[in-house]
Predict the 3D structure of the following.
Amino acid sequence: MKKIRIGNGFDVHAMAEGLPMWLGGIRIEHNKGFVAHSDGDVLIHALCDALLGALGLGDIGVYFPDNAQVFKGIDSKVLLKRCMKLVHEKGYILGNADCTILAQAPKLRPYIDRMRETLAPILDVAAEDISIKATTTERLGFTGREEGIAVYATALLYLQ
Ligand code: MG
């Protein structure tokens, strides 16, 4: 395999009132949370798919099926750790990752540094190597109507 590999990931979760919101590995204060089999951390799920995609290892559903009881309510940081282990087993390390969150609400800017600091040790990089950006979709589409949140992630891996 080549020395440098790039992968992308995308995920969406629907939101409902009264559920806890976990995003980027941390708890977000909001009146809605994600409807999901796991904790619904859509950013981590997109990141997992970017890591797996870079090495052609399939997708998150292959490793953590959403009908498996063992993954019910699971902390997505555990899933991310396992994906990173697969990356390391192939001899690769993460160079950097870049994520874009599509969310009308809540305002995520105050949380972003803490997300980066939370994810960096799991990914075995410095917080500055994890970029997390948030944008609204100008009230358009399902994200604009606050029915759900979507995340795009890109990860660059290189052979150690
Ligand atoms: Mg998901």
Q: What stands out?
A: The longest helix spans residues 109-123. The longest strand covers residues 4-17. Residues 28 and 111 are 8 Å apart (CA to CA).
